[in-house]
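Work package 3, deliverable 3.1, input record:
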Amino acid sequence: MKISIENKISIPFLTLFIVSLTIVLWSSFQFDYNYVMSSQYRQMDEKLKEVEMNLNLRRQGTGQLESPDYLKEQMIRDLQCIYPGDLLIYEKGVLLMGDDSFLKRDDIEKLNTPFNNYDHLTASSYLLVSKYLETMDWSLVVLVDKRELMSYFYESYKYNILIGIIFLTLALQFTIMVSANITKPLRVLSKFCDQISGGDYNRRIELKRKDEIGKLAEALNQMLEQLDASMTELIYVKNYNQDILNNIENGIITYDAHEEQISKNPFAAMIETQLENYNFEGHSFEKSLKAIIQRTKEQNLSQYQLYRFTHEDGDVKFIDVNTSIMRSGEQAIGGYICSFKDISEQKKVESRIQRLERLASTGRLAAGVAHEIRNPLAGMRASIQVLNKRLKSDLTGKNEMMFLRLIQEIDRINKLIFDLLEYAKRYKAEPKCLNLYSKLNELLDLIESELQSRHIQFSMENLKTDTMIFVDSVQFSQIVLNILKNAIEASPSENGKIVIEITESEFSVILKITDNGSGISEEALDKIFDPFFTTKSEGTGLGLSIVHELIVENEGEIDVKSNEHEGTEVMLKFKKGSELIYG
Amino acid sequence: MPRSYVFLGFFFFYSIALLYFGKTGYSESETIDDFFIGGRKMGLFALVSTFVATWFSAASMQGLPGSIYVYGFTIVLYSIIPWIIGAGFLYLLTPKLRASGAVSIPDYFNKRYQSKVLQVSTGLLIIFNFVLYIVIQIRGFGIVISEFLEIPYTLAIVIVYIFILYTTFGGLLSLAKSDGFNFIVICIGIFLGTWIIIFRMDSLSAFINQANEVEGHAIEGFLYYTPKASLLKPLAGGAMTLISLVSAFFAWGLGLATNPQYTVRIIAAKDTKTALEMIKRSVVILCFTYIGIIIIGLGMRVIMPSIKSVDSIDSVLTVVISSMFSTPISGIVMLAIMAAAISTANSQLLVAASSFIYDVFGIVSKKQRSSDVLLMISRMVVLIVGSLSLILAISPPESLLIYGGYIWGVFSVTLLMPLYGGLFWRDATTKGAIWSMISGMTTMILFYVITYNSERIFKIHPSMPGVIVSALVFYLVSLQGRVKANEN
């Protein structure tokens, strides 16, 4: 049971008071009782002495004139007048005067025992004092009704009890007031501490006292000042660290010594969500992290690994994971930190740079070779034409055809060289703001007849009339037409479908050109931008290489996704045209 | 063991229990609002306990069975029914009074009529009335204690005084706890009394027959003679008149409806719903206790049709139970009377002190004081008002006792119209309130003087003309004020 400090103070005092009061009342009761009894016996002794003296005087006064029996009779008659009801006289056990019907036989025998001294006896409800009078051979007994005596006693003692109750009430009131006053500042302190523990650190206690409690309050206020300052600093540091964790573009997850996750920052949660349907060698992202933490624990060493997570639709994410060990004491392992970063974009950039370098070197080589081949080839073509003229008359149909084929092949080589030189030369883009809607419709006119002849369903989605892009107009046409031409060629003979979907963001415009054609195999997809790589019998393999060059020149991006026999999706990203660019 | 020692034993254990219950709430009061109105956060249980215990005064416990013993069933219509109707008025008053945000009736007057004079004068009237009422409570209780314990009257009232002060010192929160205990004691006393009476009855029909047979003076030498078959009659065989019954409503019913000792409990409730629930539940509980009181009153008369001369009707119960019941039962009934007196007197003492602090001292003194100082002053006021009541109770002048018998009527003629009129009539004015109080009080005094020599046992209560005149004056003066305001 919880006992308040107030009760802890008041209860002992009250207990002490009640015990003292009870002892005082009880002892005064005993004292008063004994006093009443002894004074009563004393009175009765006096009365008995008085009777004895009266009897002696009477006996001496009468001398020998009267007979003893007559004298006794006279004496009893006189005593009956003086002491009616409270005097008994026995002679050899026989009652001569008074009524002893209320006395027991034993008591009467005791009263008739010949004692010289006053004998005090309490019988039934009476107090008795007896004395044997040898001269008369009488036993004299004085009696007093005890009930009557006690009722007087109780009546007077009642006031002691009432005064006791009054003082008990006063003492209780006094104790309550004193204990309440003593404990009040403690209650204030306790209430104050409750408020502080509730988190209200700005409060200050006001106790205008100079005693120990006042000093305690002062100390508490000072402590709160320090606590407040420390808390402010702590909160600042905590918030600062939290801000770092929240804003860092690295996922950070902490684990305890038993590899149970403790915390993760928002970026980690975001990556986890993004990688929900990705896996690395059949394991989910979460499992992969657990495995690397397990490895860290086993080897007691920080770990590093680059994970390549793949999605069912072929998308790939590169996650760079680092682990480190948190040591709480000198050597004790407190937990593990796992930080990771999505480096997929970085990987794409790297691959693009590699591709560009590869294309550039290939282009330079091809241009050099082409330039060297071109002059002899021109000589060869001229010589063949001269020979053809000179020998025209001698040539039969078959030989003439051979000459023609020779010239055609040389022309083809020339075209190839032309394309090569085109590819190798630096395209200088002159970008301007261009209305995408008009431009695409203009391009659509160019390919419309072809689309109709091949029964291809063509559509444009989300194309707004006011969408502007910042590109070189001619080069943009070249890019889009090239892609569309490829899409048309890949489209099936029936139910062909090409869709251009436009997506605008704050700074860019994305054109997603999708067809349901034959698609590109996974092996070929990596090489489509390489020069001379072609899957067509008539192609030079330079179309997409040039497209790539033009896109780079216009500071755009190209990405191709394809599933063989299902179709291809080409994503073209260009800068968005705006007033700012106009300016 | 003398009989008074058995009573002393009961008294001793009652004292210990009361000391315990009174102690527990002492340190809960931290402000004067906690002290006087329980911080306006009191729950239903505490409120019902203190409401019923305060309601059930020595008048209910002693005067009511005594009056029923002498006059019969008509007293139920004369006092109990008006009280219950008065509780209905309190129920109507509750939402508006609580919405006003006032801490007392005089404070409400100041808020409603913008008159500090009205607040201070009403505060003083309440203090004056309650001091006298406490005198009556102390006196009634002192007589009972001195008779039972066979001690001098002065010692008896000192004991009462100490108990009343003890239970009031802790404030309303503390008082509610001791009131709860006191009401339990009251209920036990009434239950035992009722049970014994019912035990002595053969059947209801036999009881009714016996009651109808009662005839003659209930108290030897007393003026009222009970005609045969009139004990259960509503108008007591002609002694009571309808107009007297109606006039009693103006005193008891409307007096209760304006009595600050009930409104303070409405204000102390934690919300309006709790306050309304407090009134409903209290009235239901009180109805049960009144049924017990009626049975005791009528039962005593049937069993003992006449008693020898007693000082007043209030002494009938103590005389009858002493001769009819065994000593322990009488002791419990004695405790019930004590509990009723203490639980009412301490509430009245607290209301008197709160009127002084809120409505007189708080208005007159502008100095800002801390809660601790105000609490100390409040306790000092409790001590002073209690001591004043004790001194007056030692040998109260006859005129004070006569006035004390009309205090409920004084409340109804002075407070009813300004309070209910202010709450329910938008056009009520300050002048209307002040003049209604003055005219009501004057009419009541005049009517009392005029009818003083009337020989009728049940006169028209002077509060009836008082309330009627105060209502008329309130209406007319307010209306005139409104007309003048419109003209301006």
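Chain B has a mean pLDDT of 87.
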